[in-house]
Design goal:
elongated, mainly alpha, about 10% strand, about 100 residues, about 60% helix, two-stranded antiparallel sheet
Length: about 100
């Protein structure tokens, strides 16, 4: 999934791993979220990466997986929920049908 997403845009994968981009500005020594109406075009593009990430992840779901994450608000939250449900993200070794048959005998 990481390779697929990064092939589209590395910013999308960053959103999955680190959460959505939220434009902020400094006020009285602290950073607060900018009102949507004050976002620049570049900030809008960066914030949209999370929507793209959610769309890509959801496109890979069957109905059961969709319902598992349907209340998630961000791509990171969705990804973290899936990781918790399915364990680590280490690739599983594929077994051929003949190997599986031999083990059953």
């Amino acid at each position: 999934m990481k390779i697929f997403v990064e092939s589209i845009d590395q910013g999308i994968w960053d959103s999955i791993e680190n959460g959505p981009y939220i434009p902020k500005f400094k006020k009285n020594g602290s950073f607060i979220a900018k009102p949507w109406s004050k976002w620049t075009n570049d900030e809008c593009k960066m914030a949209k990466l999370d929507c793209s990430a959610q769309n890509i992840i959801a496109s890979a779901f069957d109905t059961n997986e969709f319902f598992r994450v349907s209340k998630c608000k961000t791509a990171k939250e969705t990804w973290d929920t899936l990781k918790a449900a399915h364990g680590n993200n280490e690739p599983k070794e594929a077994k051929s049908k003949s190997q599986a048959r031999r083990k059953r005998r």
